[in-house]
Amino acid sequence: MGQDPFTVLLDSVCRHFTKNYFYIPQGYWWTLDRCANGTVPDGFILLGFSGNPRLEMTLFVVVSVFYTVTLVGNSTTILLCHLDPHLHTPMYFFLTHPSILDLCFTTSCIPQMLVNFWGSDKTISYLGCAAQLYIFLGLGAAECMLLLVMAFDRYLVVCRPLHYAVIVNPPLCHKLVSLVWVSEVFGTLVQSPTTMKLPFCLHHQVDDFVCEVPALIRLACGDTHVNELQISVIGVIFLMGTLLLILVSYSHIAQAVLAIQSQEGRSKAFHTCSSHLAVVFLFYCRVTAVYIQPRSHFSKKGGKFLNLFYTMVTPTLNPLIYTLRNKDMKGAFKRLFGKDRRASEE
């Protein structure tokens, strides 16, 4: 039985409108299911920097290098904290989790990004896009809570040094980490389903290189006020709420440091907190760049470059910040690889 004439006409009109008014990368097309029968789309087009193939090839090389450094750096951090007995302390127990988050975050988006940069096919499946969105939101919420937990740990180290070992015991560490991963589930379930149920425009073009909430909201042709309100509420709970508590912790830390009489004591307290402060700064800069700026900002190429910078640079810098400024990590690195080298020589 042939198709209904009205359905054929509607599909033809949709295709004509899309081909004439929207850019479709060469070598790609799929049926516009939402236009034809109201089902979810088969996939999306991640435009990224598709208008500049030379730039994409340059970015392919740059992102590949950063991704490799991220994998090596974060894996090394996890390995050192697990294998070296000197690092079996609450501080380094917490330190392994940012590396786990960075590995999950980069692996969820950069391989797809590299595929899109390499060739003319810019598509991502509907399920792949939904998975990226779920992972981004979940890991973002988890990192907010983890930075807060680490700020609490720094507060106890500086302000309650004599009671630190009693307060921060293994059961408490595991409870705090459990809270971090539970917050990931909450952050994902609140925003992701409503975003993926939006009535997306027929061209299915995501003006970004990953499936994040702002880009998908821009793709919607219907009312998005509920989604924008959800972003604001989640931002207040996870971003502003945790940032406020982190600042409160560091205000107490600053008072304790100023009360230290010796310069050596102040310097030691500063080095204890400086790495964590640097990571907090990088994280909130990225969140501000992606989620807090007005919607029109994201349609500009500069906004995409900024998002790309924080997507690939921040996970690369995190292990470097924690290891290059940390004598314990350097010592563990020398002990581990020194033993391996001596074993190979023997």
Highlighted features:
346 residues; 13 helices; 3-stranded mixed β-sheet; mainly alpha
Task: Describe the structure in brief.
The protein is mainly alpha-helical.
Commentary on this structure:
The structure is a single chain. With 346 residues, the chain is mainly alpha-helical. It contains 13 helices and three strands. It has helices spanning 5-21, 33-37, 53-83, 90-118, 126-159, 164-167, 170-196, 213-219, 225-259, 263-292, 295-298, 301-324, 327-345; strands at residues 43-46, 123-125, 205-206. The protein has a three-stranded mixed β-sheet with strand order 2-1-3. Helix 4 runs antiparallel to helix 5 (126-159) and helix 9 packs antiparallel against helix 10. Mean pLDDT is 78; it is low at 1-39 and 294-299.
Topology:
Layout (H helix, E strand, L loop, with lengths): L4 H17 L11 H5 L5 E4 L6 H31 L6 H29 L4 E3 H34 L4 H4 L2 H27 L8 E2 L6 H7 L5 H35 L3 H30 L2 H4 L2 H24 L2 H19 L1
Parallel strand pairs: 1-3
Antiparallel strand pairs: 1-2
Helix pairs in contact: 3-4, 3-12, 3-13, 4-5, 4-12, 5-7, 5-9, 5-10, 7-9, 9-10, 10-12
Distance linking N and C termini = 78 Å
Radius of gyration: 24 Å
Helix content: over 70%
Mean of residue pLDDT? 78
Number of strands: 3
The major beta sheet can be summarized as: 3 strands, mixed
The geometry reads as globular
Instruction: Show unreliable segments.
Output: 1-39, 294-299
Q: SSE order, as H and E?
A: HHEHHEHHHEHHHHHH
Major beta sheet, strand line-up: 2-1-3
